[in-house]
Amino acid sequence: MQRVTDAAEFVAALDRLIGLLAEHQRTAARQREVHPVCDTQHDDATVSLLEG
After folding, report:
1. DSSP secondary-structure letter at 20?
2. What is d(CA 20, CA 14) in angstroms, rounded to the nearest whole number?
3. For residue 3, is it within any domain?
4. Are 35 and 50 in contact (CB under 8 A)?
5. Distance (Å, rounded) from C-alpha 28 to C-alpha 33?
6. What's the pLDDT band for 9 if we cut at 50, 70, 90?
7. pLDDT digit string (tens) for 20-32?
8. Is 7 domain-assigned?
9. Residue of 10, 37, 19 whose CA lies nearest to 2
10. How far apart are CA 13 and CA 29, in angstroms?
């Protein structure tokens, strides 16, 4: 997992939102990928967190 770092240059609000949306979509895709693995391993706690 990466942390957002302050950039030295100005980023417009719309560009920031577009970047955050793309990051959110990647995170959601990874959660969908790992969900069946957690089910197979009977990791109910993680499944519960993924289903939020």
Report:
1. H
2. 10
3. no
4. yes
5. 9
6. confident
7. 999 999 999 999 9
8. no
9. 19
10. 24
Would you say residue 2 lies in a domain?
Answer: no
Q: Could you give the CA distance from residue 5 to residue 20 in angstroms, rounded to a whole number? A: 13
pTM: 0.69
Q: Judge contact between 5 and 19, C-beta under 8 A.
A: no
Between helix 13-40 and helix 44-51 the angle, nearest 10°, is 150
| Domains identified in the chain, total number | 1
17, amino acid identity: L
Q: Give domain status of residue 5, yes or no.
A: no
| Residue 36 in tokens | 């069946």
Distance from C-alpha of 46 to C-alpha of 52, rounded to nearest angstrom: 10
| Domain span holding position 31 | 13-51
CB atoms within 10 A of CB 6: 5
